């Protein structure tokens, strides 16, 4: 199948909702197929690509940082960008500017950028299909 | 005929909204659309053979394709599914997006 364009809107913040696990699994499937993916990270999701996220140890479980192997969403975003590129596609990941300002998460992993809901409108206009995953 | 993929992430025993989503699936099907209901996350709890969710069986009888995310089933240790429901990989969402199905999330 030839490459297509898809748009996805996310709203859940990192480390709180299973929605993001499912969302990243869907994004992974699309990236493996070489599609072009446009993601608009809105509200809490604007923190997914925040570059200052840090892995940490878990002293309660007696694990150091390496043993804990804590996954960060910023690494998942970076991995998604790399996976899409490897398979001939690309990911345009836009973080809502007002949302990142409110939360102080305006430093992003490379390859993502600041934007606005107008970007999501443009994504929808240019996409073959759209999926919106709202908060509960 | 329009294709719809309805993704249900919620447990019907926890959220009364789920019933309305099942109703949406039924209505779309009765309007001669092709409807797939994909249960993900806690939504798969309704897919257990032991769960009492007669509306799901009615949906399957009405022609709605009902799938349950294999990852969510495995996470929850669910191995036996109710009649009319089958396990599917998350790639099914990519399949529907590629095919142009109208895809909704609840």
List the topology elements.
The complex is a heterodimer of chains A (136) and B (106).
Chain A: E1 5-10, H1 18-32, E2 36-41, H2 65-68, H3 73-86, E3 90-96, H4 97-103, E4 112-115, H5 117-126, E5 129-133
Parallel strand pairs in A: 1-2, 1-5, 2-3, 3-4
Helix pairs in contact in A: 1-3
Chain B: E1 3-8, H1 17-30, E2 34-39, H2 54-62, E3 65-69, H3 70-75, E4 85-88, H4 91-99, E5 102-105
Parallel strand pairs in B: 1-2, 1-5, 2-3, 3-4
Helix pairs in contact in B: 1-2
Portion in beta strands of chain B: 15-25%
Count of discrete structural domains of chain A:
1
Spans of chain B of at least 5 consecutive residues whose pLDDT stays below 50 are none
CATH architecture descriptor text of chain B: 3-Layer(aba) Sandwich
Overall number of domains of chain B? 1
Number of helices of chain A: 5
- CATH topology group of chain B: Hypothetical Protein Ychn, Chain: A
Task: Give the strand content of chain A.
Answer: 15-25%
Q: What is the multimeric organization of the chains shown?
A: heterodimer
Task: Give a brief description.
With 136 residues, chain A is of the alpha/beta class.
Describe this structure in words.
- The complex is a heterodimer of chains A (136) and B (106).
- Chain A has 136 residues and is of the alpha/beta class.
- Chain A has a single domain, classed as DsrEFH-like (Hypothetical Protein Ychn, Chain: A, 3-Layer(aba) Sandwich).
- Helices cover 37% and strands 21% of the residues of chain A.
- Chain A has 5 helices and 5 strands; from the N terminus they run E-H-E-H-H-E-H-E-H-E.
- In chain A, helix 4 links the parallel strand 3 (90-96) and strand 4 (112-115).
- The mean pLDDT of chain A is 96.
- With 106 residues, chain B is α/β, with parallel strands linked by helices.
- Helix content of chain B is 36%, strand content 24%.
- Chain B has 4 helices and 5 strands.
- Chain B has helices at 17-30, 54-62, 70-75, 91-99, and strands spanning 3-8, 34-39, 65-69, 85-88, 102-105.
- In chain B, strand 3, helix 3 (70-75) and strand 4 form a beta-alpha-beta unit.
- The longest helix of chain B has 14 residues, at 17-30.
- The radius of gyration of chain B is 13 Å and the shape is globular.
- Chain A binds chain B through residues 1, 4, 6, 18-19, 22, 25-26, 29-30, 33, 35, 128-134, 136, and chain B through 9-10, 40-42, 69, 71-72, 90-91, 93-94, 97-98, 100-101, 103, 105.
């Amino acid at each position: 199948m030839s490459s297509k364009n898809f748009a996805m809107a996310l709203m859940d913040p990192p480390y709180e909702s299973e929605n993001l696990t499912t969302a990243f699994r869907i994004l992974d499937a699309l990236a493996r197929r070489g599609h072009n993916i446009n993601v608009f990270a809105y509200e809490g999701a604007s923190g997914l690509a925040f570059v200052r996220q840090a892995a940490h140890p878990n002293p309660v479980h007696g694990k150091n940082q390496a043993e804990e192997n804590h996954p960060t969403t910023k690494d998942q975003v970076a991995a998604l960008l790399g996976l899409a590129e490897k398979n001939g596609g690309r990911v345009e990941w836009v973080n809502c500017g007002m949302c990142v300002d409110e939360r102080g998460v305006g430093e992003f992993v490379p390859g993502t950028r600041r934007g606005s809901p107008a970007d999501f409108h443009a994504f929808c206009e240019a996409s073959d299909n759209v999926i919106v995953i709202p908060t509960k | 005929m329009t294709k719809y993929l309805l993704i249900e992430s919620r447990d019907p025993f926890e959220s009364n909204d789920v019933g309305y989503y099942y109703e949406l699936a039924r209505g779309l099907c009765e309007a001669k659309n092709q409807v797939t209901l994909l249960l993900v996350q806690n939504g798969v709890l309704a897919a257990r053979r032991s769960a009492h969710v007669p509306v799901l069986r009615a949906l399957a009888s009405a022609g709605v394709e009902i799938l349950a995310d294999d990852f969510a089933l495995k996470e929850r240790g669910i191995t036996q599914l109710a009649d009319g429901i089958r396990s599917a990989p998350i790639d099914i969402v990519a399949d529907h997006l590629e095919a142009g199905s109208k895809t909704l999330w609840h």
